């Protein structure tokens, strides 16, 4: 049941993504044209403090016109280490510099259309460095009790699937 990509051609490209058209052989020998989006990896990070509170951002996503809680996240720059990108994004968006980061999980949020990979990390410590340099990224940043996360996800307050999965994994790791 494996599909085979015979060839790809870029039909649009900018610094954020490429739209390609692939010539694909499907099981049974048929062929089809399939559009796909090639994206740079995304790195995300958060911290859980001694009170088992997780640092989250409340933000609006104009594409879906929705509000929700998220981890600090952004695109990994060319040549940048993924964990270093996660730490950089967390400090830029929250004003908190994480301590040593632990891998949480890697997800492919839409692997039928894109090759996007989101790498999520967490830390058990962070230090305040000052107001976030990218404060426009969110309306507020808050320490949320980790025990509330499953109910927040059930109420659709964490709409991004990768963020929800990462927070559930973090809930499991910290609270069982």
From TrEMBL:
Annotated Gene Ontology cellular component terms: cytosol
Cofactors that this protein relies on: Mg(2+)
Domain of life: Bacteria
InterPro entries hit by this protein: NUDIX_hydrolase-like_dom_sf (IPR015797), NUDIX_hydrolase_CS (IPR020084), NUDIX_hydrolase_dom (IPR000086)
GO MF annotations in UniProt: hydrolase activity
SUPFAM superfamilies listed in its UniProt record: Nudix
Stated name of the protein: ADP-ribose pyrophosphatase YjhB, NUDIX family
Organism name: Streptomyces atratus
